[in-house]
Amino acid sequence: MYTDKVMEIFSTPKNVGELKDANGIGNVGNASCGDIMKIFLRIENNIIQDVSFLTFGCAAAIASSSAATEIIKGMTVENALKVTNKQVVEALGGLPQQKIHCSVLVEQAIKAAIADYKTRL
Amino acid sequence: MKNANKIYFDHSATTPVDREVLKQMLPYFSDTFGNASSVHGFGRSAVSAVDAARCKVAEILDVSPKEIYFTSGGTEAANWAIKGVKLTEKRNRIMVSAIEHSAVLAAAKQVKKDGAELILLPVTSEGFVQPSSLETLINEQTALVSVMLANNEIGTIQPVKELAKIAHKAGAYFYTDAVQAVGSIVVKPRELGVDMLSLSAHKFYGPKGIGVLYIRAGTHVDKLICGGHQERTMRGGTTNVPLIVGLAAALEKAAENQQDNLGKVSKLRDYFVRGVEKNIPYVIFNGSMKNRLPQNANFSFDFIEGEALLLLLDHAGIACSTGSACSNESLEPSHVLLAMGKSSEKAHGSLRFSFGIHNTKKEIDIAVKVLAEAVAKLRSYSPLYHEFCKEVNHVHG
Ligand SMILES: Cc1ncc(COP(=O)(O)O)c(C=O)c1O
User: Fold this and answer.
1) Distance CA B266, CA A19 (A)
2) Ligand 1, residues B14, B149, B152, B153: which to mutate, most atoms within 8 A of Cβ?
3) Nearest CA in chain A to B344
4) How would you classify the pairing of strands B196-200 and B211-215?
5) How many whole angstroms from B14 Cα to the centroid of ligand 1?
6) Is the CB of B73 under 6 A from ligand 1?
7) In Å, what is the CA distance from B296 to each residue of B44, B85, B301, B363?
């Protein structure tokens, strides 16, 4: 049901773990829905210098998290806010309909992490 | 896909057709191909094969051949049993356990939509329907009680004999879905005292698409499939001779080797359970170990999600399943584990391993190792696990 790209990213995800010096953290989802995503950002001079994630969830959730972190790394805060779940789905070569919500969740996690960064300014 | 080096621990989903069984089926495709309803010799040859199969099945189940009805599988048999019982104004209630297979649950929901009152029977945290809860909830309006003989996700064997007695005392019929049990443990409908019982060949090394509904003589059940006069006018459709021959052959072989197979499979299962519990922390064995099918093990792995784990295992060539195979397309956590009072997080993190007669200890050694690695990998991604480790460090540090 998954594309080869999803399986590839899921089995070797990038940017996994906790960023110790993160200055923006977004935490979305809950265990009862089966997905929790936590995005860590280190933003300097308005640029996302580093990003990582921790995800509890299915293969699509883990692959979406990895793909999204790769998309926003090096972006300005403004551009990162414009990243949509569609771009994540494209990077994965598509997601099954019932898994689209994983890409939506990661978009929300990025927005939450940036909002957190802004409250710390 | 080649099967070499692949490890199959999903025998509750389906089993490979036994080669001897297949051999017995093959002549009925192209050689003895007649329609069992035809009067001529071609037809008579087909009829005699079906009669012999029916008698064999009846003998093994210890019932009359007249009580055996061939269906297209467990799902059709369940639909027939649930929808076939006549509801009246006075008897309009059906009761099914909360952990039934989707075949039963979906059929029951449809009957409810048509106006019946549907009561779901709760289960204990160990995965059993308690006779006392049926006793409390049943009433004189109850037309049918349906409790499976063995659960497909956690393998618990239900106290069907006691439950059937309670149903009968209230004047209700009792149906048991024995699809997971038949071929694994000894099943005798009369000893159980049930009015209807279903089984499916592909769970015991027979072909897919063929099953049986046993209907005790004298039970008033309407037909589900209208058509010709097949199955003593109770089930229309040209008789599926090769599959019926295959079902009977597979059941016969399962019955002959029942003791040996049960011993072998339960030893493998127990060895696997010990291996998992020794090598992987924070796992929960779901369901009672007592009164459980010999082939079934079901675990919840804390902090991670079952589908991701299943895919990592599949990647390494090990096949198992989350919940039941039928629920893989849905996002819902296992309804069985939820009914047992597990949190949805734990229900999301569950995997079922079901062993078969061709599995080996060596395969289990490999699987335990791969499983431990996969669990550790997914936990390293999990925010829940990271939080848990911090808390533990906080307490101990
Ligand atoms: C308990 C139970 N009932 C019914 C079925 C459905 O049987 P079938 O696949 O023959 O339709 C299955 C298996 O899929 C099952 O495990």
Assistant:
1) 46
2) B152
3) A32
4) antiparallel
5) 9
6) yes
7) 42, 32, 16, 16
- pLDDT, one tens digit for every residue, chain A (121 residues): 899 999 999 999 999 999 999 999 999 998 777 899 999 999 999 999 999 999 999 999 999 999 999 999 999 999 999 999 999 999 999 999 999 999 999 999 999 999 999 999 8
pLDDT tens digits along B81-119 = 999 999 999 999 999 999 999 999 999 999 999 999 999
- pLDDT value of position B327: 44
Distance set, CA B140 to CA B85, B222, B276 (Å)? 15, 21, 47
Residue for token pair 């990895």? A66
Report whether B71 contacts B96 (CB < 8 A).
no
Contact B297, B273 (CB under 8 A): yes
Residues in a beta bridge with B246: none
Q: Is the dihedral of CA A71, A72, A78, A84 positive or negative?
A: positive
CA B64/CA B59 separation, integer angstroms: 7
Q: Is there a contact between B329 and A98 if contact means CB atoms under 8 Å apart?
A: yes
Are the Cβ atoms of A16 and B315 closer than 8 angstroms?
no
Minimum Cα–Cα distance from B379: chain A residue: A56
Please list the ranges in chain B whose pLDDT falls under 70. 1-2, 323-331, 397
Cα B39 to chain centroid distance, Å, stands at: 38
Mapped to the 3 state alphabet, what secondary structure does B11-41 carry? CCCCCCCCHHHHHHHCHHHHCCCCCCCCCCH
Is the sign of the CA dihedral B393, A54, A101, B329 positive or negative? negative
Distance between CA A83 and CA A75 in Å, rounded? 10
CB–CB of B182/B260 below 8 Å? no
Distance in Å, CA B176 to ligand 1 centroid? 12
